[in-house]
Amino acid sequence: MGDAEARTTGLSADMMIVNPIGFLTLTIWSWGIYFSPTARRQYQARHHGHLPQVSVSDLAFSLHALVISSITLGQVLYYAWKNKPKSSADDESRPLLGGASTAADLAVPTSTHKPSVVLQLSLAAMTVAAFVSAGLVWAGKAEFLDWLYLVSSLKLFISLVKYIPQVLLNYRLKSAEGLAIWVILLVSWRKQATRAALRQQDITGSFLSFAQLAVSAVFIEHDPSGIVANPAKLGLSLLSVLFDAIFIVQHYWLYPNRRVKDGEEEE
Q1: Domain extents in the chain
Q2: Distance (Å, rounded) from C-alpha 253 to C-alpha 228?
Q3: For residue 92, how many C-alpha atoms fall within 13 Å in the half-sphere facing its CB?
Q4: Closest by CA position to 163, among listed 198, 188, 206, 208
Q5: Residue environment code for 27-39, b if the CB has 16+ CB neighbours within 10 A, otherwise e
Q6: 6 DSSP 8-state letter
Q7: What angle do CA 188, 194, 199 make, to 5 degrees?
Q8: Is the Cα dihedral 104, 256, 254, 248 positive or negative?
Q9: What is the pLDDT of residue 82?
Q10: For 159-207, what is each residue's pLDDT tens digit?
Q11: What is the largest CA-CA distance in the chain?
Q12: What is the 3-state secondary structure (H, E, C) of 54-104?
């Protein structure tokens, strides 16, 4: 990349901020259902004695993704601070994409490191839901497994919240430069001139994750319902395939060779 300045322009702040939170909920679900005797007993009671379809690889993936996404968020915050304009008219006082603010802009971050209004409201609602559910468990009105299921559902909602702003941002900028497409494709031989490497569940990993869940549930545990009983893994695989396909179309067909630099386009 030579002397190119390290930046995170074109990378949705929502995606970076919510990623560690999403993988934290996935870690809580995976590790909780795997190690908690209480959760496993409650699961077996509901599924005719079958064990939950969570493997050691799920534990490793969730923890690894949590660490990597946290490091990536740290990079975004660092470069946002390092490249912050010294003039008073900086990015904090105007929208990233320019133009008048509209209702649709509420779903698009106006800064490279601050979440959109929609994300702020979503995080507040998810926090309240998690604490209310925990209170019901403590009061004996719900089981611990129900709280874990809620946490796993939050991961799916977070995936929607994080992917949609990036799709909208790519559309508004007419560029997909902010995403490392080789990470999505799992093709390491192609070098990409991106500002930051986004670590997410790539499309190849999504297919393999679903295949592992299906084989484990159907052929090992002989419980096909175990596929649906792991909403975090099933939903994450399907969502990742869907949005990765959208990113691939944006990168290779809609906005090929389009780069963003300080709000301007360059070849």
Answers
A1: 13-84+103-266
A2: 34
A3: 9
A4: 198
A5: bbbbbbbbeeeeb
A6: P
A7: 60
A8: negative
A9: 80
A10: 887 788 788 888 888 887 766 666 666 543 333 333 333 334 467 777 8
A11: 65
A12: CCHHHHHHHHHHHHHHHHHHHHHHHHHHHCCCCCCCCHHHCCCCCCCCCCH
b (16+ CB within 10 A) / e for 126-150: beeebeebeeebeeeebbbbebbbb
Between residues 193 and 232, the one the model is more confident about: 232
pLDDT at 216 over 90: no
User: Is residue 208 exposed (0-12), middle (13-18) or buried (19+ Cβ within 10 Å)?
Assistant: middle
| Distance in angstroms (rounded) separating the CA atoms of residues 207 and 71 | 26
pLDDT value for 199: 38
DSSP 220-242: IS--THHHHT-HHHHHHHHHHHH
* Tokens coding 169: 């941002």
Q: What does the block give as tokens for 199?
A: 């670590």
Q: Which two tokens stand for residue 50?
A: 């079958």
Q: Residue 134 has which token pair?
A: 């925990």
